[in-house]
Amino acid sequence: MADKAMLVVSAHSADFVWRAGGAIALHKKNGYRAKVVCLSFGERGESAKLWRKGEMTIEKVKAARREEAERAADILGAEVEFFDLGDYPLRVSDEALMRLVDVYRELQPAFVLSHSQKDPYNFDHPLAMHVAQEARIIAQAEGQNPGQKVVGAPPVYAFEPHQTEQCEWIPNTFLDITEVWETKRRAIECMAGQEHLWDYYTRVALQRGVQAKRNIGITATRDIQYAEGYQRITPTVTGDLS
Amino acid sequence: MADKAMLVVSAHSADFVWRAGGAIALHKKNGYRAKVVCLSFGERGESAKLWRKGEMTIEKVKAARREEAERAADILGAEVEFFDLGDYPLRVSDEALMRLVDVYRELQPAFVLSHSQKDPYNFDHPLAMHVAQEARIIAQAEGQNPGQKVVGAPPVYAFEPHQTEQCEWIPNTFLDITEVWETKRRAIECMAGQEHLWDYYTRVALQRGVQAKRNIGITATRDIQYAEGYQRITPTVTGDLS
Amino acid sequence: MADKAMLVVSAHSADFVWRAGGAIALHKKNGYRAKVVCLSFGERGESAKLWRKGEMTIEKVKAARREEAERAADILGAEVEFFDLGDYPLRVSDEALMRLVDVYRELQPAFVLSHSQKDPYNFDHPLAMHVAQEARIIAQAEGQNPGQKVVGAPPVYAFEPHQTEQCEWIPNTFLDITEVWETKRRAIECMAGQEHLWDYYTRVALQRGVQAKRNIGITATRDIQYAEGYQRITPTVTGDLS
Amino acid sequence: MADKAMLVVSAHSADFVWRAGGAIALHKKNGYRAKVVCLSFGERGESAKLWRKGEMTIEKVKAARREEAERAADILGAEVEFFDLGDYPLRVSDEALMRLVDVYRELQPAFVLSHSQKDPYNFDHPLAMHVAQEARIIAQAEGQNPGQKVVGAPPVYAFEPHQTEQCEWIPNTFLDITEVWETKRRAIECMAGQEHLWDYYTRVALQRGVQAKRNIGITATRDIQYAEGYQRITPTVTGDLS
Amino acid sequence: MADKAMLVVSAHSADFVWRAGGAIALHKKNGYRAKVVCLSFGERGESAKLWRKGEMTIEKVKAARREEAERAADILGAEVEFFDLGDYPLRVSDEALMRLVDVYRELQPAFVLSHSQKDPYNFDHPLAMHVAQEARIIAQAEGQNPGQKVVGAPPVYAFEPHQTEQCEWIPNTFLDITEVWETKRRAIECMAGQEHLWDYYTRVALQRGVQAKRNIGITATRDIQYAEGYQRITPTVTGDLS
Amino acid sequence: MADKAMLVVSAHSADFVWRAGGAIALHKKNGYRAKVVCLSFGERGESAKLWRKGEMTIEKVKAARREEAERAADILGAEVEFFDLGDYPLRVSDEALMRLVDVYRELQPAFVLSHSQKDPYNFDHPLAMHVAQEARIIAQAEGQNPGQKVVGAPPVYAFEPHQTEQCEWIPNTFLDITEVWETKRRAIECMAGQEHLWDYYTRVALQRGVQAKRNIGITATRDIQYAEGYQRITPTVTGDLS
Q1: Could you tell me if D171 and C75 are in contact, meaning their C-beta atoms sit under 8 angstroms apart?
Q2: What is the ipTM metric for this complex?
């Protein structure tokens, strides 16, 4: 299993921590290679605390955000690559899209995580998911860099957005992250600029933990305390329905 | 795994064959106990060929349908229980509902299969699913026959309806039934009264097979020829996203 | 074409006038037999003006509503049958359902009109549509009164509810009723107890007329002034797409 | 404002506490009369802890649940009426429906709170909402107990279900309950049999508080810490859009 | 209240009149500043009558449309700014988007009105709404022109499209415009090129008036004759549910 | 009828054969002019077999695909025009959009066929439909090439995608193609590079044939063996509902 890999496509540099940090830490622990692509640093729209410090420039904010993200990725065990495409609004050129196709081809991920397909509070998020899906489709095409190994059909999941119901996001998959929770919390605490969200996302993990338990039934012996919710977008192919 | 069980709730006596015959044969082969509850025989609404023979009574039609269903269940490896509630329209009293609750409690199924939640061509079908879900909820209640072992949270799947798109049924799960296809086809051929559907459902299995292959990717080595589509209604709880 | 027939299933005794009066008058003119089934008189919930007169009884209200409906049906050219099942709430027993099945079998309608499938302002309306569909399905069953001629697959349409958007009703079919508008208006004027709705439904017909014109394009020569909107529920089978 | 009233229709005896306790305490404080109708005690399906004590009977469980609910209602400032219709499954006869109509007529509520319209985990919940809506419609009918004062069009809200996304429940209204949070928490602590939910619903209130703040904008001066989410089902009529 | 403001983002130069003219006049009367941004003049796609005059150029049409819109805005009491981005198709560059962000920052609107999120008859309309939302999000970002005052979270409403049901637009808010109806009608009559729509939108206002009355209940004393329908997209935060 | 025309907008050069080949052959036979616009050749994403041959270049693949498409169009009786815009990803400039507008103006189609509005497996497909609709809207505008004849309101249909349910595509129209099936099959067999799909789409036609029969009812005398499914996007305007 050592050669399995996972890919996270994150609109801003902190999204992968709040929303998929448990999945990264858990799969890393289980032998996966984990790679995160941050399309932007969230420098304009998700760095309010930094801007309020005064004497800030866009480059200083980006540097601070990069450092935080790298430390968090390090704790979780992920490689991180920054595309630096700008935010609020994020715009993705075809050149950037093709760079993401190359990531798919090189990584050959077993599954892909990105944002919800709708988010009325944040238009960068659905765009990131759109790009994650489009790059996956192109990476499957035989005519794209012929000779290179095409990718298979890695399942695509939408991780949890901020206001789930407004985003019409429905978690059909719960990932038990109890055994890596401490790691995720440490990664979260790297996000110095968004300290108000630390407890918010701790509560999210606890609520999803309770719900995960309910969805395996009270008769189950497995003790889940923390979980992450995901919406699987692509169908499952299986040989057993239980 | 010998004590695992599966439950199929079928509105009419042939539905479980067309729509879940592969799942039954496959899980049976893999050590599951399989139980089918037929809420009715489909004696009024799905026995056109029998009625056209002339000199028919409702009892004769029911007997013929029962015999066909029993032979098919036998081939697939399932126990079958007939509730004989009538069809077109099917009506389910609370007494019948509680009989189904008892089946859940006794069987302790690992998963449950029933009809799509909507079917504008057949109102008996969504009712069967509704009842399958309601009985599951009651079987989870501690106050129902206190002392009896409650059921956990077995996943619920909707099997494939006749005109899928009109039923707003979306297959998010494909089950590879290639290795038991011959068994399913033999069970299908028990349905003498609906011979026109034999090839129809053979083509369904072939199409779902092609789609299942596509959903694992062209790089996959597994060769799927026949599949069944299912819509999983309840969330998955897992420790691995690939 | 003289033997074609149409069926309208109306929850209350005035619904068929406001919502399908144009369709009745037009098809009648074109040689159809038109039959209306009123499941109730709308005596409790849609007769406010009568109740305010004082000295009213439920029987007096029903008699007044029946008379109005009969006069309107007469103007439109429809037969009308009252099932008198009560309103607010309407309740439909299986016996009443089977009476409606008999209507289908006798009438052999070429198409069926009833209410929208959802109506948060009026629960009698979606129930009427549900019953209209269920009776149609049973009337198709060979085991229902074997020997009787079964019905084919008459298309089902939902006519226009009062607050269309709240009812999630979408008109995919516009019927040009310009040539029978005067007849419809006269039928509307039979509804003495709901005079405030006369102009409301005249405006509805004008708006739908404008929309119908837009949907054939400004290059079309046909001059539509009044129309009725319908949501076709069942698929069309055709040999020409224009 | 002393004569304004609010109505809560609760499927089981604890639902109104978790889901609408803040709304009750807040409106009570602001001069409303608050009335809760509990259709059942939740004696079979939501009293697991009591049943596990052993030596239990259905009557003992109902008595314990009633006592808890009465104490909680007392703390919140609500009158509570128990219809005792049974749970898992809840069944509502037309007689019970008419009893609820009488409550509407007597109370003349300014708004109504009940469950989400869908809940795959609990079929009693959507039924309670259905009944709350149907009773409201009947209470508006002039022919229902003619002479009695009919009700107007009180807005209907769905309060928060357990697994919101699975229930397709979307909060379009946030109620700031910061000033009555301590009262709600005390009412919650009356629910001795469901202690595991105390912290769960405290976290719900904190998350909704964060979201409410976000929806008034970071420039707002109002400090919201706790909130309840509601889905308003009926339209607003207003003279100002801000 | 003198410093409150409202913003209307209109795809073509007449949209704000038909669809939000009442809201503008009413809020203006109540002390709001009202600003309209017209992204285009509708010169190609909504000026049929002008083009049929012959001897027309795109500049002449734009001038005529501008003059009409300015007169209408003047009657309603609104400032109007033309972005002149072209229509059929409308295209919005990031530069134009940022110009709209500046409008938000300068105006600090209490609420925003724009088109429905879907419109199969007119792709310029949903684009205008998309841009209105995206500009609002960017105007909230601290990193956009740091030091400038960011905007809060002004509610966003979709005003009424031409064929509402096809646009999946659902009015969850009715605005009573009875007291400013005459003003709106005068503004409508400035639209010389679309005289066929004058009566159409008068009927729309009457229908929405009837519906608004129904949604406050027949027991209400407020007499509503004309109304505008809006779909509120963003949640309400409140301290009272009635 | 000789001057009627139909338009097919196909994302890749083979789509029109699998998905609309029957409609083309049938309408051609009935006197229509049929025109197909292929936005790309599908050279990168739908030519796997060609690429695997080795020694391939993009130009060779395009030439091979063009030849296949021309032969198929010839058999079906259609003119075909290639826009050569590239695939995986397809990108449509405003210049290309206007070229399609010109096709509309010249052809004056009686109806238009294109892809489903959603397709998670293929983002080129929904883009093609979007462009087909946007060009239609622009072709209706009086200000587009003033003096040229504008188009009316030709109905728009979405033809069948590969995995229908995932695309949320619902066939509301079945076209009986029994009489031209042999022609369609011959056109299909021109697609040498996708031989694995020949039988797949033959089975699709058989399944739709069975469903079409069911939707006219078992009492109908018309014998349908092969059909194509379409989702009509635009409303029907009619004078008869049967």
Answers
A1: no
A2: 0.95
